[in-house]
Amino acid sequence: MTRQPVPLYAPDLSRFARSVAAQIKGRDSLGHVECLNILARAAGFRNVQHLHAAAAARARLDAPPASPVTDHDLVERALRHFGPDGRFRHWPARRSQQVLCLWVLWSALPAGQALHERDLTARLAALQGFGDAALLRRDMIGLGLLARNASGTEYLRREQPPPPEARDLIGRIRARRKAGA
Questions:
Q1: What distance in Å separates the CA atoms of residue 34 and residue 104, rounded to the nearest whole number?
Q2: pLDDT tens digits for 3-12?
Q3: Which of 16, 22, 124, 165 lies at a CB distance of 3.0 to 4.6 Å from 133, suitable for a disulfide?
Q4: HSE-CB of 33 using CA atoms within 13 angstroms
Q5: Which fold has domain 72-180?
Q6: Cβ atoms 129, 88 nearer than 8 A
Q7: First-to-last CA distance in the chain?
Q8: Is the dihedral of CA 95, 96, 99, 100 positive or negative?
Q9: Torsion sign over Cα 163, 169, 170, 175
């Protein structure tokens, strides 16, 4: 059985030593587990099992989050809706692919810059070839990718991290656009 190192932190070393000394006093002999329990209690734990459980919980909290898994098949299916020049050619039938395609359009919009409805329509027209900028605007607002003012005349890209599939698709479309330029 492999031994896992267990950190033992004593905020006050003097108090820790006094506690160990008091627990050992008057005992003729100590076993291995008894020594471990004395050390754990001196550090403020009930016993050595409590110390191990606390160390394991701390390790789980300190561990980096698991990287999200990218659905490469979904990215490939969404990629089919873009031409070799990186333009969005046609609206996908499946919602999951529609959302990914909208992330690509979102990434091409300027960050932190308010756009008039005409400007946004012109930018979307340059990025896609099926001519329905209103559909794209409405869907991007519905997904929270864009915000608009009360009168509906100005739009602003909402900054947020794209999901893993969208990051992958955005990178592939950018590569296509560079190759086509």
A1: 62
A2: 778 888 777 8
A3: 124
A4: 2
A5: Arc Repressor Mutant, subunit A (1.10.10)
A6: yes
A7: 60
A8: negative
A9: positive
CA atoms of 85 and 174, how far apart (whole Å)? 9
SS3 category, 115: strand
Q: Which amino acid is at 169?
A: L
Phi/psi of residue 17, nearest 5 degrees:
-65, -40
Which residues, given as ranges, of the chain have pLDDT below 70? 1-2, 63-67, 181
CA distance 65 to 27: 46
Helix (H) or strand (E) holding 32: helix 32-42
Q: Indicate the domain borders of the chain.
A: 13-62, 72-180
pTM: 0.64
Give the number of other CB atoms < 10 A from CB of residue 44. 15
Backbone angles phi, psi at 126, to 5 degrees: -70, -25
96: amino acid identity, one letter? S
